[in-house]
Amino acid sequence: MSKARIISLLNQKGGVGKTTTTVNLAAGFAAAGNKVLVIDLDPQTHLGLHFGIEESAASVYDLLMDESITVNDALVNARENIDLVTSEVDLAAAESELASKTDRHDLLSKKIIPILDDYDYILIDCPPSLGLLTINALAASKELIVPMQTHFLALQGVSRLFETVQMLVGGLNPDLEVTGIVLCMHEKNTKLAREVVDDLQQFFDSSRDSNVPWSNCVIFDPPIRRNVKLAEAPSFGQTIFDYEPDCAGAKDYAKLAESVMATTREVTIETIKPTKTIEVVSPTEAVPTEVENEST
User: What is the CA radius of gyration of the chain?
Assistant: First the structure.
């Protein structure tokens, strides 16, 4: 049993505040005295830039591709109580390079096992896609948090994301749960935002008694208000708490960190063994799908 809560942050739509949320949640957890590891699985490398770190001795690409590289080789101290495994642009080619590996779905989960007891939280910033890198993140995680904007198309994207989570739960990672939704760049006074939130809440309420990974999912409070300081902070290599600790964005993320910390999950760590098939559950039938197809 490990004390670490391993949380992937994912939305296959880019520009929704995923990396901003990863960075500032990590900072909020660390400020509360927690030891945090942040892993950047996005080839855009924005996470390291947000912390002011551009290079490291070994990246997550090296970690996945080179059997001799350990997670300790890739660790960089980003802030007090925050360690980072950086990304690099070469990671974009990893999906094709890893395609021939038999253990390609759980490489990350195996690599981080030795350091699980060293951290209270491990946050994984996923790429904006549902390919092999994202599958590695979800296979290693016990929780999923979805940052999103309150737009109609974003709502449709979350539906597709949940279908993928359902497939993974059926095959690679039966312990994965959708912990919550983070509303980013939120404008609560617009009619569209209220309608999307209402639709989300009704969807989750209708799932409470169902055997699905999102049956306990919540819409985290508070939503993250649209705030220009959140957009400015990365260009200075700072978290929002470093850059403008009294702004609305900092206050929102501080409260959000408290909300996430208040949701507890009991975590059991084991090496995940991929199975040959997983089930896609549709409203009418279950269709067997090869795991390999998820990396394409």
Answer: 18
pTM above 0.70, yes or no: yes
Which residues are CB-neighbours of 193 under 8 A, at least 6 positions away?
150, 186, 187
Q: What is the distance between the alpha carbons of residues 274 and 139, in angstroms, rounded to a whole number?
A: 9
pLDDT of the residue at 267 = 42
Task: Specify the residue for token string 């067997």.
Answer: 288
Burial class of residue 198 (count of CB atoms within 10 Å of its CB; 0-12, 13-18, 19+) = exposed
Determine the straight-line distance between the first and last CA of the chain, rounded to whole angstroms.
33
- Give the range among 64-68, 83-87, 92-96, 213-217 with minimum mean pLDDT: 92-96
CA distances from 37 to 107, 139, 190 (A): 17, 17, 36
Half-sphere exposure (CA, 13 Å, Cβ side) for 112? 32
Cβ-in-10-Å burial (0-12, 13-18, 19+) of 110 comes to middle
> Tokens 């980013």 appear where?
184
- Has residue 278 got a pLDDT over 70? no
Where do the structural domains in the chain lie, given as residue ranges? 5-295
| Residue among 245, 143, 226 at smallest CA distance from 185 | 226
- Residue 252's nearest CA partner among 226, 224, 232 is 224
Enter the tokens of residue 243.
């850059």
Separation between Cα atoms, residue 48 and residue 205, nearest integer Å: 37
Q: Tokens for 30?
A: 């660390």
Q: Please, what's the b/e burial string for 225-246 (b: 16 or more CB within 10 A of its CB; e: otherwise)?
A: bebeebeebbeebbbbbebbee
The tokens for 91 are 């990671």
HSE, CB side, 13 Å, CA atoms: give it for residue 231: 8
Record: fold of 5-295: Rossmann fold (3.40.50)
